[in-house]
What we know:
By secondary structure, the chain is α/β, with parallel strands linked by helices. The chain has two domains: 15-229, Rossmann fold (3-Layer(aba) Sandwich); 232-334, Helicase, Ruva Protein, domain 3, CATH 1.10.8.80. It has helices at residues 15-33, 40-51, 66-75, 92-96, 130-133, 136-142, 177-182, 194-204, 219-230, 236-251, 261-277, 285-289, 292-296, 304-308, 313-323, and strands at residues 56-59, 77-78, 81-85, 97-102, 107-112, 119-123, 144-147, 150-153, 159-164, 185-187, 217-218, 255-257, 301-302. The strands form five sheets. Strands 3-6-9-1-10 form a five-stranded parallel β-sheet. Strand 4 and strand 5 (107-112) form a beta hairpin. Helix 1 (15-33) packs across helix 2 (40-51), helix 2 (40-51) crosses helix 11 (261-277) and helix 10 packs across helix 11 (261-277). It starts with 14 loop residues before the first helix and ends in an 11-residue tail after the last helix.
Amino acid sequence: MTSTRDRDAAPPAAVADLDTLDRVAGRIRASIEKVIEGKPEVARLALVVLLSEGHLLIEDVPGVGKTMLSKALARSIDCTVRRIQFTPDLLPSDVTGVSVFNQDTRQFEFRPGGIFANIVVGDEINRASPKTQSALLECMEERQVTVDGTTYALDTPFMVIATQNPIEMEGTYALPEAQRDRFMARVSMGYPVESAEIAMLDTHTFANPLDDLEPVADAAEIRKLIDIVGQVHVSVVVQRYAVAIATATRRSPELMLGASPRATLHLVRAAKASAALSGRDYVLPDDVQGLTEQVLAHRLLTTVEASMSGRTPEAAVRQIVADVPMPENRPRTS
Protein backbone atom coordinates (compact mmCIF):
# COMPACT_ATOMS: atom_id res chain seq x y z
CA MET A 1 0.00 0.00 0.00
CA THR A 2 1.34 3.41 -0.93
CA SER A 3 2.41 5.48 2.07
CA THR A 4 0.72 8.85 2.44
CA ARG A 5 4.03 10.54 3.26
CA ASP A 6 7.64 9.84 2.37
CA ARG A 7 10.01 9.44 5.30
CA ASP A 8 12.39 12.02 3.87
CA ALA A 9 9.65 14.48 3.01
CA ALA A 10 9.79 18.06 4.26
CA PRO A 11 7.92 18.70 7.54
CA PRO A 12 4.25 19.48 6.89
CA ALA A 13 2.97 23.00 7.13
CA ALA A 14 1.62 23.67 10.63
CA VAL A 15 -2.04 24.41 11.18
CA ALA A 16 -1.12 27.89 12.42
CA ASP A 17 0.83 28.52 9.22
CA LEU A 18 -2.11 27.45 7.07
CA ASP A 19 -4.37 29.72 9.11
CA THR A 20 -2.00 32.61 8.46
CA LEU A 21 -1.96 31.82 4.76
CA ASP A 22 -5.75 31.65 4.64
CA ARG A 23 -6.08 34.98 6.44
CA VAL A 24 -3.57 36.93 4.32
CA ALA A 25 -4.62 35.31 1.03
CA GLY A 26 -8.24 36.04 1.87
CA ARG A 27 -7.46 39.73 2.29
CA ILE A 28 -5.67 39.86 -1.07
CA ARG A 29 -8.46 37.99 -2.85
CA ALA A 30 -11.11 40.26 -1.35
CA SER A 31 -9.10 43.29 -2.46
CA ILE A 32 -8.91 41.98 -6.04
CA GLU A 33 -12.62 41.22 -6.11
CA LYS A 34 -13.39 44.84 -5.25
CA VAL A 35 -12.14 45.68 -8.74
CA ILE A 36 -12.81 42.46 -10.69
CA GLU A 37 -16.39 41.52 -9.91
CA GLY A 38 -17.91 38.13 -10.60
CA LYS A 39 -14.58 36.37 -11.31
CA PRO A 40 -13.56 34.61 -8.08
CA GLU A 41 -11.86 31.77 -9.95
CA VAL A 42 -9.61 34.25 -11.77
CA ALA A 43 -8.61 35.95 -8.52
CA ARG A 44 -7.83 32.56 -6.96
CA LEU A 45 -5.64 31.50 -9.88
CA ALA A 46 -3.70 34.76 -9.63
CA LEU A 47 -3.04 33.97 -5.96
CA VAL A 48 -2.01 30.41 -6.78
CA VAL A 49 0.59 31.67 -9.24
CA LEU A 50 1.87 34.33 -6.83
CA LEU A 51 2.31 31.89 -3.94
CA SER A 52 4.01 29.27 -6.11
CA GLU A 53 6.53 31.82 -7.43
CA GLY A 54 5.26 31.67 -10.98
CA HIS A 55 4.28 34.16 -13.66
CA LEU A 56 0.79 34.78 -15.02
CA LEU A 57 -0.29 35.37 -18.62
CA ILE A 58 -3.70 37.01 -18.99
CA GLU A 59 -5.00 36.54 -22.52
CA ASP A 60 -8.30 37.81 -23.88
CA VAL A 61 -9.93 40.34 -26.16
CA PRO A 62 -9.66 44.07 -25.33
CA GLY A 63 -11.82 45.60 -22.65
CA VAL A 64 -12.54 42.65 -20.36
CA GLY A 65 -10.30 43.72 -17.47
CA LYS A 66 -6.89 42.16 -18.11
CA THR A 67 -4.92 45.21 -17.01
CA MET A 68 -7.36 45.89 -14.17
CA LEU A 69 -6.70 42.42 -12.75
CA SER A 70 -2.93 42.82 -12.89
CA LYS A 71 -3.08 46.27 -11.32
CA ALA A 72 -5.48 45.13 -8.61
CA LEU A 73 -3.12 42.32 -7.54
CA ALA A 74 -0.12 44.66 -7.65
CA ARG A 75 -1.81 47.37 -5.58
CA SER A 76 -3.04 44.89 -2.99
CA ILE A 77 0.54 44.19 -1.93
CA ASP A 78 2.84 46.79 -0.40
CA CYS A 79 5.92 46.10 -2.51
CA THR A 80 7.75 47.55 -5.49
CA VAL A 81 5.65 47.57 -8.66
CA ARG A 82 6.66 48.57 -12.18
CA ARG A 83 4.61 48.69 -15.33
CA ILE A 84 6.08 48.11 -18.77
CA GLN A 85 3.93 49.15 -21.71
CA PHE A 86 5.05 46.88 -24.53
CA THR A 87 5.14 48.66 -27.89
CA PRO A 88 6.82 47.87 -31.23
CA ASP A 89 9.63 50.35 -30.51
CA LEU A 90 10.40 49.08 -26.99
CA LEU A 91 14.03 47.97 -26.67
CA PRO A 92 15.42 45.06 -24.63
CA SER A 93 17.46 47.56 -22.59
CA ASP A 94 14.22 49.28 -21.57
CA VAL A 95 13.26 46.02 -19.88
CA THR A 96 16.54 44.81 -18.38
CA GLY A 97 18.50 48.06 -17.95
CA VAL A 98 21.56 49.61 -19.51
CA SER A 99 25.10 50.64 -18.53
CA VAL A 100 25.65 54.39 -18.92
CA PHE A 101 29.04 56.13 -18.82
CA ASN A 102 29.33 58.69 -16.02
CA GLN A 103 31.49 61.62 -17.07
CA ASP A 104 32.23 62.61 -13.46
CA THR A 105 33.40 59.23 -12.16
CA ARG A 106 34.72 58.08 -15.56
CA GLN A 107 32.98 54.74 -14.99
CA PHE A 108 29.98 52.90 -16.35
CA GLU A 109 26.92 52.88 -14.09
CA PHE A 110 24.06 50.45 -14.34
CA ARG A 111 20.59 51.91 -14.63
CA PRO A 112 17.96 49.25 -13.86
CA GLY A 113 15.14 48.67 -16.34
CA GLY A 114 11.49 48.08 -15.70
CA ILE A 115 12.00 44.45 -14.68
CA PHE A 116 13.53 45.44 -11.34
CA ALA A 117 10.49 45.22 -9.08
CA ASN A 118 8.62 42.66 -6.98
CA ILE A 119 5.64 42.70 -9.32
CA VAL A 120 6.08 43.65 -12.97
CA VAL A 121 2.98 44.38 -15.02
CA GLY A 122 3.71 43.84 -18.71
CA ASP A 123 0.82 45.34 -20.62
CA GLU A 124 0.12 43.92 -24.10
CA ILE A 125 3.32 41.90 -24.20
CA ASN A 126 2.65 40.64 -27.71
CA ARG A 127 2.87 44.13 -29.18
CA ALA A 128 6.64 44.19 -28.67
CA SER A 129 9.07 42.56 -31.09
CA PRO A 130 10.29 39.00 -30.41
CA LYS A 131 13.73 40.45 -29.62
CA THR A 132 12.28 42.54 -26.79
CA GLN A 133 10.08 39.69 -25.60
CA SER A 134 13.15 37.48 -25.28
CA ALA A 135 14.67 39.96 -22.82
CA LEU A 136 12.33 38.43 -20.24
CA LEU A 137 13.59 34.86 -20.62
CA GLU A 138 16.46 35.02 -18.12
CA CYS A 139 14.51 37.25 -15.74
CA MET A 140 11.51 34.96 -15.49
CA GLU A 141 13.37 31.65 -15.22
CA GLU A 142 16.51 32.51 -13.24
CA ARG A 143 15.28 35.64 -11.44
CA GLN A 144 18.33 37.58 -12.49
CA VAL A 145 19.46 39.98 -15.19
CA THR A 146 22.79 39.90 -17.01
CA VAL A 147 23.94 43.15 -18.66
CA ASP A 148 27.43 43.64 -20.09
CA GLY A 149 28.70 40.51 -18.36
CA THR A 150 27.45 41.50 -14.91
CA THR A 151 24.60 39.61 -13.24
CA TYR A 152 22.08 41.38 -11.01
CA ALA A 153 19.73 39.39 -8.77
CA LEU A 154 16.02 40.23 -8.61
CA ASP A 155 14.28 40.58 -5.27
CA THR A 156 11.80 38.06 -3.85
CA PRO A 157 8.89 37.89 -4.39
CA PHE A 158 9.18 38.39 -8.13
CA MET A 159 6.22 37.94 -10.44
CA VAL A 160 5.54 38.98 -14.02
CA ILE A 161 1.88 39.54 -14.86
CA ALA A 162 1.60 39.95 -18.62
CA THR A 163 -1.48 40.73 -20.66
CA GLN A 164 -1.97 40.09 -24.33
CA ASN A 165 -4.65 40.18 -26.98
CA PRO A 166 -5.26 37.09 -29.11
CA ILE A 167 -2.57 36.65 -31.74
CA GLU A 168 -5.01 37.12 -34.60
CA MET A 169 -5.50 40.78 -33.62
CA GLU A 170 -3.66 43.30 -35.82
CA GLY A 171 -0.27 44.69 -34.82
CA THR A 172 0.79 41.81 -32.58
CA TYR A 173 3.58 39.23 -32.50
CA ALA A 174 2.95 35.69 -31.34
CA LEU A 175 4.90 34.79 -28.20
CA PRO A 176 7.66 32.26 -28.92
CA GLU A 177 7.24 28.81 -27.38
CA ALA A 178 10.19 29.42 -25.02
CA GLN A 179 8.52 32.58 -23.74
CA ARG A 180 5.11 30.95 -23.23
CA ASP A 181 6.75 28.11 -21.34
CA ARG A 182 8.06 30.60 -18.75
CA PHE A 183 4.51 31.48 -17.70
CA MET A 184 3.20 29.14 -15.05
CA ALA A 185 -0.43 29.65 -16.00
CA ARG A 186 -2.63 31.39 -18.51
CA VAL A 187 -6.07 32.70 -17.71
CA SER A 188 -8.79 34.19 -19.89
CA MET A 189 -10.98 36.77 -18.24
CA GLY A 190 -14.08 36.12 -20.30
CA TYR A 191 -17.10 38.39 -20.39
CA PRO A 192 -18.79 39.09 -17.05
CA VAL A 193 -22.20 37.73 -16.18
CA GLU A 194 -25.08 40.18 -16.45
CA SER A 195 -25.30 40.95 -12.72
CA ALA A 196 -21.57 41.63 -12.46
CA GLU A 197 -21.63 43.90 -15.50
CA ILE A 198 -24.54 45.87 -14.06
CA ALA A 199 -22.68 46.20 -10.75
CA MET A 200 -19.64 47.42 -12.68
CA LEU A 201 -21.72 50.12 -14.37
CA ASP A 202 -22.98 51.21 -10.98
CA THR A 203 -19.55 51.50 -9.34
CA HIS A 204 -17.04 52.16 -12.16
CA THR A 205 -18.75 54.99 -14.03
CA PHE A 206 -18.07 57.76 -11.52
CA ALA A 207 -14.71 56.61 -10.09
CA ASN A 208 -11.85 54.21 -10.71
CA PRO A 209 -11.98 51.48 -8.03
CA LEU A 210 -8.20 51.15 -8.23
CA ASP A 211 -7.85 54.64 -6.74
CA ASP A 212 -9.32 53.47 -3.43
CA LEU A 213 -7.41 50.20 -3.28
CA GLU A 214 -5.02 50.01 -0.33
CA PRO A 215 -2.31 47.37 0.27
CA VAL A 216 -3.52 44.52 2.48
CA ALA A 217 -0.18 42.63 2.65
CA ASP A 218 3.49 43.36 2.16
CA ALA A 219 6.48 41.65 0.56
CA ALA A 220 7.60 40.07 3.84
CA GLU A 221 4.20 38.42 4.32
CA ILE A 222 4.22 37.11 0.76
CA ARG A 223 7.67 35.60 1.31
CA LYS A 224 6.34 33.85 4.42
CA LEU A 225 3.35 32.49 2.51
CA ILE A 226 5.67 31.21 -0.23
CA ASP A 227 7.67 29.35 2.43
CA ILE A 228 4.46 27.82 3.81
CA VAL A 229 3.45 26.61 0.34
CA GLY A 230 6.91 25.08 -0.04
CA GLN A 231 6.22 22.82 2.97
CA VAL A 232 3.08 21.32 1.42
CA HIS A 233 3.64 17.60 0.86
CA VAL A 234 3.38 15.91 -2.54
CA SER A 235 3.22 12.11 -2.39
CA VAL A 236 4.90 9.87 -4.95
CA VAL A 237 1.45 8.85 -6.18
CA VAL A 238 0.55 12.44 -7.00
CA GLN A 239 3.95 13.07 -8.59
CA ARG A 240 3.46 10.08 -10.88
CA TYR A 241 0.01 11.31 -11.80
CA ALA A 242 1.39 14.72 -12.84
CA VAL A 243 4.15 13.06 -14.88
CA ALA A 244 1.63 10.72 -16.52
CA ILE A 245 -0.43 13.69 -17.72
CA ALA A 246 2.66 15.49 -19.05
CA THR A 247 3.86 12.31 -20.79
CA ALA A 248 0.46 11.84 -22.40
CA THR A 249 0.70 15.30 -24.00
CA ARG A 250 4.01 14.32 -25.59
CA ARG A 251 2.47 11.18 -27.07
CA SER A 252 -0.83 12.64 -28.18
CA PRO A 253 -1.39 12.38 -31.95
CA GLU A 254 -3.16 15.75 -31.81
CA LEU A 255 -0.13 17.61 -30.45
CA MET A 256 3.18 18.27 -32.15
CA LEU A 257 4.60 19.96 -29.04
CA GLY A 258 3.83 18.47 -25.64
CA ALA A 259 4.44 19.67 -22.11
CA SER A 260 8.04 20.27 -21.05
CA PRO A 261 9.57 19.10 -17.76
CA ARG A 262 9.26 22.73 -16.66
CA ALA A 263 5.52 22.45 -17.25
CA THR A 264 5.34 19.39 -14.99
CA LEU A 265 7.23 21.26 -12.29
CA HIS A 266 4.93 24.26 -12.62
CA LEU A 267 1.88 21.99 -12.42
CA VAL A 268 3.01 20.44 -9.14
CA ARG A 269 4.07 23.77 -7.64
CA ALA A 270 0.72 25.30 -8.53
CA ALA A 271 -1.06 22.28 -7.05
CA LYS A 272 0.83 22.81 -3.77
CA ALA A 273 -0.37 26.43 -3.62
CA SER A 274 -3.92 25.36 -4.45
CA ALA A 275 -3.85 22.76 -1.67
CA ALA A 276 -2.57 25.32 0.83
CA LEU A 277 -5.32 27.76 -0.14
CA SER A 278 -7.78 24.93 0.50
CA GLY A 279 -6.38 24.52 4.02
CA ARG A 280 -4.42 21.30 3.39
CA ASP A 281 -0.74 20.53 3.92
CA TYR A 282 -0.79 17.82 1.24
CA VAL A 283 -1.69 17.69 -2.44
CA LEU A 284 -4.55 15.61 -3.83
CA PRO A 285 -4.75 14.39 -7.43
CA ASP A 286 -7.76 16.68 -7.70
CA ASP A 287 -5.47 19.70 -7.14
CA VAL A 288 -3.36 18.62 -10.10
CA GLN A 289 -6.32 17.80 -12.29
CA GLY A 290 -8.03 21.12 -11.57
CA LEU A 291 -5.06 23.12 -12.87
CA THR A 292 -4.05 21.14 -15.95
CA GLU A 293 -5.81 23.32 -18.50
CA GLN A 294 -4.57 26.63 -17.07
CA VAL A 295 -0.98 25.40 -16.61
CA LEU A 296 -0.48 23.21 -19.68
CA ALA A 297 -2.67 24.37 -22.58
CA HIS A 298 -0.80 27.57 -23.48
CA ARG A 299 2.46 25.61 -23.92
CA LEU A 300 1.09 23.06 -26.36
CA LEU A 301 0.91 23.16 -30.16
CA THR A 302 -1.62 21.16 -32.12
CA THR A 303 -0.76 19.39 -35.34
CA VAL A 304 -1.88 20.86 -38.66
CA GLU A 305 -4.50 18.16 -39.03
CA ALA A 306 -5.92 18.79 -35.55
CA SER A 307 -5.99 22.54 -36.12
CA MET A 308 -7.81 22.14 -39.43
CA SER A 309 -10.43 19.99 -37.73
CA GLY A 310 -11.00 22.66 -35.09
CA ARG A 311 -9.23 20.95 -32.19
CA THR A 312 -7.60 23.29 -29.66
CA PRO A 313 -4.87 22.62 -27.08
CA GLU A 314 -7.48 23.08 -24.36
CA ALA A 315 -9.64 20.33 -25.88
CA ALA A 316 -6.59 18.06 -26.16
CA VAL A 317 -5.74 18.61 -22.48
CA ARG A 318 -9.31 17.84 -21.40
CA GLN A 319 -9.23 14.61 -23.40
CA ILE A 320 -5.88 13.62 -21.91
CA VAL A 321 -7.10 14.26 -18.36
CA ALA A 322 -10.14 12.11 -19.07
CA ASP A 323 -7.97 9.29 -20.40
CA VAL A 324 -5.25 9.25 -17.71
CA PRO A 325 -6.57 7.21 -14.75
CA MET A 326 -6.90 8.99 -11.43
CA PRO A 327 -4.70 7.41 -8.70
CA GLU A 328 -6.60 4.99 -6.51
CA ASN A 329 -4.58 5.59 -3.33
CA ARG A 330 -5.23 9.22 -2.44
CA PRO A 331 -3.31 10.86 0.42
CA ARG A 332 -5.18 10.87 3.70
CA THR A 333 -5.52 13.84 6.00
CA SER A 334 -3.37 12.15 8.63
